[in-house]
Amino acid sequence: MVGEYAYTQPHGFSNRIKNVAIVGAGGHMGKHLAEQLLKTGKHVVSAIARPSSTSKLSEGLQVVRIDYSSEDDTALVEALRGQQVFIITMSVAAPRDTVSKLVRAAAKAGVPYIMPNWFGHDAANDALCNDSMLTRSRDSICAEIKSLGVSSYLMLVCNFWYEFSLGGGPYRYGFDFQKRSFVLFDGGNVTINTSTWPQCGRAVANLLSLKELPDDESDQSPTLSQFCNSSIYISSFRLNQRDMFESVKRVTGTTDVDWTITHEAAEQRFKDGQAEVQKGNFKAFPKMLYSRMFFPNGDGDYQSRRALHNDLLGLPVEDLDEFTAIGVRMGENGDVAQDH
């Protein structure tokens, strides 16, 4: 890794991030990351895609087609040489060892920074991660990156994606837009943070547009290096289910009488979902995952415990109803798979 200050670096050092590679650039999150990085005009962005992939990729990406699941990582390592940041964004259904293979290849290629497929939960909240079945993947990939001694990891804490979760059926934020039904958890008053896909993309693009290092000892401006082996905390909205419902009613022109509203306890929903997952029914995983975020203990509201990095990254204040409308359309059209 590079040292503490820009002025101590070897001749020719450029104190900015130019070369960024992404795996999953055609996916839900990856598409927005790629678009926002390209929009800055400051980065050369390479999409590493499988030869068989039919995903539509953003115009302006440098596309490199590689079978990165292969045991022979020669081509992957070569593609990663000269990259300064490697972003991994993949489905949770991807084979468990895929991220590890990518991380090892990045180390061989000398990539200084890796975003290792963590775009969501507060990685510092052990209880939340344990209950959400995320601790093992978090700990193993962070430990592997550190043990290889080449790269630092960067994790984006954004909680659930708002438009995806709103339109994702009753197992997520409780809405079924096709049936016009709504499940309130514990009265719908538990506040959580949630973020839109574009806001996540802007956060990463603006993060990678910071200087890499402080110029010298007196430089107090924000830098990428200050986030080494830690998390970046952002949020689009801090709200509860009732706030979401009010927005939904504004967008759809409906009132309470147009909806079938039921009530459930988040902790019981979590236990029920957990029991189903333990039986091998992974379609219940979203029910377990989302119910846990709405526990009344405030685990889903990290903004009440720590400062966000929204201002540091220059993120805009977004319009709730605009993204509610997107979520409603996704739900009405069945665009979100009901299982995770």
What is the global morphology? Answer: globular
**Strand and helix order:** EHEEHEHEEHHEHEEEHEEHEHHH
Question: Helix content range of the residues, please?
Answer: 25-40%
Mean pLDDT score, rounded?
Answer: 95
Number of helices: 11
End-to-end Cα distance: 36 Å
Rg calc: 21 Å
Q: How would a crystallographer describe the biggest sheet?
A: 8 strands, parallel
Oligomeric form of this entry?
single chain
Query: Which stretches are low in confidence, meaning pLDDT under 50 for 5 or more residues running?
Result: none
What percentage of the residues does DSSP assign to strands (E)? 15-25%
Number of E-type strands: 13
Structural class, judged by helices and strands?
alpha/beta
How are the SSEs ordered, and which strands pair?
Elements: E1 19-23, H1 28-40, E2 44-49, E3 62-65, H2 74-80, E4 85-88, H3 98-109, E5 113-116, E6 119-120, H4 126-131, H5 135-148, E7 152-157, H6 162-166, E8 175-176, E9 181-185, E10 192-194, H7 197-207, E11 230-233, E12 237-239, H8 241-252, E13 260-264, H9 266-278, H10 285-293, H11 320-333
Helix pairs in contact: 1-7, 2-3, 3-5, 8-11, 9-10
